[in-house]
Fold this protein.
Amino acid sequence: GAGVSQSPRYKVTKRGQDVALRCDPISGHVSLYWYRQALGQGPEFLTYFNYEAQQDKSGLPNDRFSAERPEGSISTLTIQRTEQRDSAMYRCASSQRVPSGRTNTQYFGPGTRLTVL
Amino acid sequence: DAKTTQPNSMESNEEEPVHLPCNHSTISGTDYIHWYRQLPSQGPEYVIHGLTSNVNNRMASLAIAEDRKSSTLILHRATLRDAAVYYCILKGDQFYFGTGTSLTVIP
């Protein structure tokens, strides 16, 4: 079946503009995660949802970053007033079950490469 | 979340076994140990996970120390396609990836 998809795959924007990054999880997956990955580093957790509820947003760097998943499926990560330091690969992942301290394999999308000029 | 420690890089000859170590001395009793890998220009992909017992699947084996403070991912015969960054992760409410081990496979 279809995996996690993200759009756009590449986004170039000017400093100060807002951007919206979209994630379409695997159908039926309950949990959805957002990560940011700088070159040469591992993915850095940003936030995650169970269904439409945002469970943890402790990884969001500041209040310019927000995420939503209004119908429990597609999610949007929005960055307002972008800065050059926001340039990175933004990855989305989904998993089948609510994380409960037990295992839940995460399936990652191809990512969106954001470049802020 | 408890953290893990992995070597920054390792090398292996093609078709030889590879043992990738991970230390997680602050692991809690309910933390599962997960391994993911990230091939160049791709997103991370699941490799294997375990709690207490050693685990095997088609990709790899996971050996977990009796005190659970360390684990080892074993690739039985490294191929060039196994060249990737391997992440050892303890499952909490979120995944903390760290910087992982970059595996180079030498033909």
About this structure: The mean pLDDT of chain A is 92.
